[in-house]
Design goal:
This is Fructose-1,6-bisphosphatase class 1. The chain starts with a helix and ends in a 6-residue tail after the last helix. It has ten helices and 18 strands. The protein is of the alpha+beta class and 361 residues long.
């Protein structure tokens, strides 16, 4: 069989496939499960999808449009901002403000709460508009991470920090967008994890990865090996054992990209505390909480030292946390290595029992 005939057969087989499920159709089906729903939450997911399409377009054109490179400013964390950081920040703020369902936003790019024009909005959103942006100038995958809460303050008033600091188990939706060889939107509303791939020819996100399950075991660990000498001795011993067992090191340096690979293929993402940064680098509210919920919903685990990430009490809008997330067995193994007295209390079963509790949309 020639290469051409094989290609022709593949094309004909693809043409015979069903059209598939668009994000909009998926949202409508999900909404029908909640008789009291009036569509606000569904529209919010659409707003996030719209913003991600715009950011995807700007990323693809950045090298030609002047959006590549440094912006010459720093964010609240003291990190140098890229032009695309600010562009993505603005795109998501505008989309969420124009949608009308969100009363306030917390973004990595601004220190204070950002109030929208809609104090009557039912939701607040915590957001990392462009994770891994320092990779962009070398054409490496980047992403967006988001977390949605139903506000606890009185509708019509200005939301406060308490609306955002409810804790990870009060999220009503969380997810990320990966801008890579293809653009994917992956999110959960407490009923499993679903992935949607963007088809630019249709301008639609299509359901491509229904009910994602993270393999219980993996053979990949993802960490910044340049900091290994600053890790706790028990973490260094665990990494030595990983190498002895033939595990591969895979580290892109963008949380979304590393987490996504391990979610699909199995593996462990880790960013422990160091001697200089005992709380680690990952932001609890708009990075660790959403990724931890995705991990649990996909049968994985996510912990900070001796506690499930979702049970950590947030101390501030931009607080940081150590994190070990991914395949349940690998997370359990690293817990056994670093905190053997506490590992048994964080079994995958006990964490998944927590993750089955959802909040009314």
């Amino acid at each position: 069989m020639t290469v051409q005939s094989t290609l022709n057969d593949s094309i004909m087989a693809a043409l015979g496939l069903p059209i598939g499920t668009t994000l909009d159709r998926f949202i409508k089906r999900q909404q029908s499960q909640y008789p009291s729903a009036v569509g606000d939450f569904s529209q919010l997911i659409r707003d996030i999808a719209l913003a991600s399409k715009i950011v995807n377009r700007e990323i693809n054109r950045a090298g030609l449009s002047g959006l590549a490179g440094m912006a010459g400013s720093t964010n609240v964390q003291g990190e140098m901002q890229q032009k695309l950081d600010l562009s993505a920040h603005i795109r998501f703020l505008r989309a969420l403000n124009n949608g009308g369902e969100v009363a306030a936003i917390v973004s990595e790019e601004e220190e204070e709460i950002i109030h929208t024009d809609h104090p009557e909005g039912k939701y607040v959103v915590a957001l990392d508009p462009l994770d891994g942006s320092s990779n962009f100038d070398t054409n490496v995958s980047v992403g967006t991470i988001f977390s949605i809460y139903r506000r606890t303050s009185m509708i019509g008033t200005a939301p406060t920090a308490a609306d955002f600091l409810q804790g990870g188990r009060r999220q009503v939706a969380a997810g990320y967008v990966l801008y890579g060889p293809s653009t994917m939107l992956v999110f959960t509303t407490g009923n499993g994890v679903n992935g949607f791939t963007y088809d630019p020819s249709l301008g639609e996100f299509m359901l491509s990865h229904p009910q994602i399950q993270c393999p219980a075991q993996g053979s990949v660990y993802s960490c910044n090996d340049g900091y290994v000498d600053a890790y706790d001795e028990s973490v260094r011993h665990y990494l030595t054992r990983c190498r002895e067992q033939g595990c591969s090191a895979r580290y892109i340096g963008a949380f979304v990209a590393d987490f996504h690979r391990n979610l699909l293929k199995g593996g462990l993402y880790m960013y422990p505390g160091t001697q200089q940064q005992p709380d680690g680098k990952i932001r609890l509210l708009y990075e660790a909480f959403p990724m931890a919920w995705l991990a649990e919903q996909a049968s994985g685990l996510a912990v900070a030292n001796t506690k499930a990430i979702l049970d950590v009490t947030p101390r501030g809008l931009h607080a940081r946390t150590p994190i070990f997330a991914g395949s349940a067995q690998m997370v359990t193994d690293v817990l056994n290595a670093t905190n053997p007295k506490n590992a048994n209390s964080l079994s995958s079963q006990s964490v998944l029992q927590h993750s089955s509790v959802t909040v009314a949309k």
